[in-house]
Amino acid sequence: MRQWMLRITAYAEKLLADLDTIDWSDSLKEMQRNWIGRSEGAEVRFKVARVQGSGTETSNLEPETFITVFTTRPDTLFGATYMVLSPEHKLVDQIVPNQWPEGIPDVWKGKTGSGNSIPASGNSIPASGNSTPASGNSIPVSENAVPVSGNSIPASGNSTPGSGSSIPESGKSFPASGNSIPERRNSFPEPGKSIPKAGTTHFETPKAAVEAYRVFAAGKSDLERTELAKDKSGVFTGAYAINPVNGEKIPIWIADYVLASYGTGAIMAVPAHDERDWEFAKKFSLPIEQVVIPIGLKPLEISPKNFIGGAIGPLEKPFCEEGIAISSPESGWRLKDLSGERCDIKGLPTAEAKAKISAWLEEKGLGKKTINYKLRDWLFSRQRYWGEPFPIIWKKDAAGNLYHEALPESSLPLLPPTLEDYKPTAGGEPPLARAKDWLHEIPGATRETNTMPQWAGSCWYYLRYTDAKNNSAFVGKDAQNYWMGANGCKLKVEGCKLDSSMTQPVTSNLQPATPGVDLYVGGTEHAVLHLLYARFWHKVLFDLGYVSTPEPFYKLVNQGLILGEDGQKMSKSRGNVVNPDDVLVEYGADAFRLYEMFMGPLQDTKPWNTKGVEGVYRFLGRVWRLFVDENSETEFEQAETLTTKAQSHQDLLNLIKLNAAIKDVAATPAQLKTLHACIKKVTEDLDGMRFNTAISAMMVFVNDAITWETKPLAVLREFLILLQPFAPHIAEELWHKLLSAFRFPLSALAYQPWPKFDAALLVESEIEIPVQVNGKFRDTIKVAVDADHATLEAAAKASEKVQTFIAGKTIKKVIIVPKRMVNLIVG
RNA sequence: GCCAGUGUGGCGAAAUGGCAGACGCACAAGACUUAAAAUCUUGGGACCUUAAACAGUCGUGCGGGUUCGAGUCCCGCCACUGGCACCA
Questions:
Q1: φ, ψ dihedrals at A395, nearest 5°
Q2: What is the reported pLDDT for A2?
Q3: What is the predicted pLDDT for the residue at A51?
Q4: Rounded to 5 degrees, what angle do the CA atoms A385, A386, A392 make?
């Protein structure tokens, strides 16, 4: 199937680097980093050994064949005791010889059988002498395990790294073909033509083993692959490669723990220093050789004899951390004649060893530094109706070959055709192929029938919103600059006339804008798909000069999930779903909104509690009663029940009178203090998106203000401005009550400037501070705010309660933090 | 397994290294009411003492540490949540 891909991998580096420039949660950034999965390492070219005689030569091996592997630990190259190709690796067919080499263990040959058996599964391993990793003298020195040793084939240094490249075709082509092999799941090894003789337990030839294994691996579903992940499987290909640093001949295996889609689809296996390789080596009795030791061991202690199972102790598990390199040609151990082409990294810490050996490999044309990413290119085609059609047409050239062309800009946007039937065609073509007229609308051309995935639209809707009616471009330059630009000023309030009663002009609210979308609030479910795709898309547009910032969302907050009342995720099957409509009917939009903000920190997951909605609903009730006259409210309620259709709703509402305690008088200092403490807290909490504590500050204000005999108009007015973002409906309603009662010429509440708090009003002359004795809280004392040390100490000692704790003891030390506390240390 | 985050009353939660539990829910008692709802007032971490209160002891997942002082900082565990999962 021909599919469109977007080359997001080309942006991997930028997507990774620019995470440092945006204000997102650490966990979200980490998820993206992991998804991109950058790892630095080296590609190393291993020459495939050509073994003469004894029937092990391969039939179709090119004279100079190299297999390139990717490794993040080139410093462990000396410990590479075998090599693994993914079953789908392109070179497998070329390297497999006609016969098994002599003297190899049976377990290497795979296992024939029937039913669900996994090849060479754990319990069928022939006793290989050393099944316990810990056993002391079980050093699997390779002389025995690797049958054809001693043939030194000098690593050829003269071939250009690019030539004879063995890098398989990009991995993305593989999964598709893998999926298309439906037969024989779990069925390796399948009895059949590949089994030459009934009754054999192992494959007779490498070809048969490889073929059977490939079928086995390809037939595994994703689920099976993960479920069986713990149990390694694989077979020996019968071929060997030459380790370029020591000339060692190492067996080449295929195993599905090596992924075709990552790196080069081939690895050098270093069982002593990699968990997976260790597991695999243990299972198939492959040699394990330690070449890195933990930092702290003396290099002098290192020799072939006390290496594993010697003075240092046996290697009981793979050592995967960084350490000190210990093996090299100079050690004299396992050294083959390399004709002087040596790289000595003995004694070097990992980082240096990596650098040295990488440079050496590069110089010899045996490898190069490489960076790999887990991130795959983005499969961008869908075979559905619902999705944007591609503005692409297909034509044939003179020779009859298909080629594609983009539609000219003048034919954009391309709209999908109207269809009666949205199903794919009988021939398996996407639904758009049903629209024959549309398909062939352009003479001599056929339209592309794939559509774009859902993510396509979510990658740029925020740009379109800024200029939704533009029919000549996806977003106009001015709109883009205004809304998304780094220097644009986004808070522009039109139609708000200033008047003398307002304390500050509206423009004081203008702050330097966050570039891009001001604030993105969304769930973590989009962490690595939508949010990565949108960043990629935006970067492409940025590089093309269509948008002015390299990132779309500089500030992002993940709101926490709201669970059901039982603390479980809401779901229909659990029956714990809260329907917002019901809450809105019962308590109104203000209470609903307010409760969601009051529940707790925005980012936290927390359970819904309908009683909590009642709590904030009661708070709004108190706010209401702070402003209106309760008797008139009763009148309203009675009138409402008797209402006739002739009476307008507005007339009824007008029955509600303002609370008579509200007067246009100067506020007392205490009242001002209450107000300004509230302004301060709400302003700061709003900035930090701590809505829950902002609301509690307003509750504190109302609890106090409701007790005031006289309620100054100016104070209540300011309070409504604070309330407005949280409960806009009730705030606006009360605002208009104030407005009509006092006839102050102000426009809608929403256009009022945000109040500023006056720090001077919050200053206390006297404060209460705690007194501790030996660090334990004992009393509070009331002191002047600017009291000096001596005064504080005296006041503390004068406290009766403190006295009982210091009586008869000597004061050894006095710790005084002005305005905070006094601590008396007695002995 | 790896990465990230979170552990505080009966519950949701507060707390620049300085009085743990603000604010709210649930609960209890009282006021108003024929009654209920609504509203208002008071109480409210545990333990111990007390008629009640005061006072006292303990208390922020567990174990150590730093500090005059730790929910907060450091080290080591445990549990839960989310993400990734043979990525060389």
A1: -135, 170
A2: 80
A3: 64
A4: 65
| CA dist list (Å): A283 to A201, A253, A254, A266, A408 | 17, 13, 14, 19, 60
Cα distance between residue A39 and residue A267, in whole Å: 14
Span A46-51, average pLDDT: 84
The encoded tokens of residue A708 equal: 């005031």
Specify the CATH architecture of the domain A580-760: Orthogonal Bundle (1.10)
List, in sequence order, every residue forming a beta bridge with A451; answer none if it has no partner.
A382, A389
Quick one: CA dihedral A358, A364, A365, A366, positive or negative?
A: negative
Say what the ipTM of the complex is.
0.95
- Higher-pLDDT residue of A639 and A359 is A359
Cα A704 from chain centroid? 46
Q: What is the mean pLDDT of residues A236-243?
A: 93
Contact predicate A213/A87, CB 8 Å: yes
> Structural domain boundaries of chain A?
39-108+141-166+232-372, 381-452, 580-760, 767-826
Q: Which two tokens stand for residue A394?
A: 């297909």
Instruction: Report the CATH fold assignment for A767-826.
Output: Ubiquitin-like (UB roll) (3.10.20)
Residues A634-665 pLDDT 10s = 777 777 777 666 567 777 777 888 999 999 99
Coil, strand or helix at A657:
coil
Strand positions, DSSP E, A634-683: 662-663
Picking from A90, A77, A76, the residue whose alpha carbon sits closest to that of residue A45 is A77
A376 CA to B83 C1' distance (Å): 18
Please give the Cα distance from A471 to A329 (Å, whole number). 70
Give the Å distances, CA to CA, from A70 to A46, A174, A255. Answer: 11, 18, 16
What is the DSSP secondary-structure string of A438-489? Answer: HHT-STT-EE---B--HHHHHTTHHHHHTTTT-SSSSS-HHHHHHHH-SS--
Q: In chain B, which nucleotides are within 7 Å of a protein Cβ?
A: 3-5, 11-16, 18-20, 22-26, 38-41, 55-57, 68-70, 81-88
CB A238 within 8 A of CB A249: no
**Token pair recorded at residue A793:** 């100490």
* pLDDT score recorded for residue A314: 60
User: Nearest-CA residue to the C1' of B86?
Assistant: A257
Checking each nucleotide's C1' against the CA of A264, the nearest proves to be B88
Q: How far is CA A800 from the centre of its chain?
A: 58
CA–C1' nearest nucleotide, residue A42: B88
- Evaluate whether A250 touches A83 at the Cβ level (below 8 Å): yes
Gap between the Cα atoms of A264 and A217, Å rounded: 18
8 A C-beta contact, residue A77 and residue A218: no
Max Cα-Cα span within chain A:
111
CA A502 → C1' B3, Å? 53
As given in the structure block, the two tokens for residue A117 are 């058996």
A39-108+141-166+232-372, what's its fold?
Isoleucyl-tRNA Synthetase; domain 2 (3.90.740)
Between A691-705 and A713-723, two packed helices, what is the crossing angle to 10 degrees? 160
Q: Is the dihedral of CA A440, A442, A448, A452 positive or negative?
A: negative
- As given in the structure block, the two tokens for residue A445 are 């051309």
Residue nearest B4, CA–C1′ metric:
A27
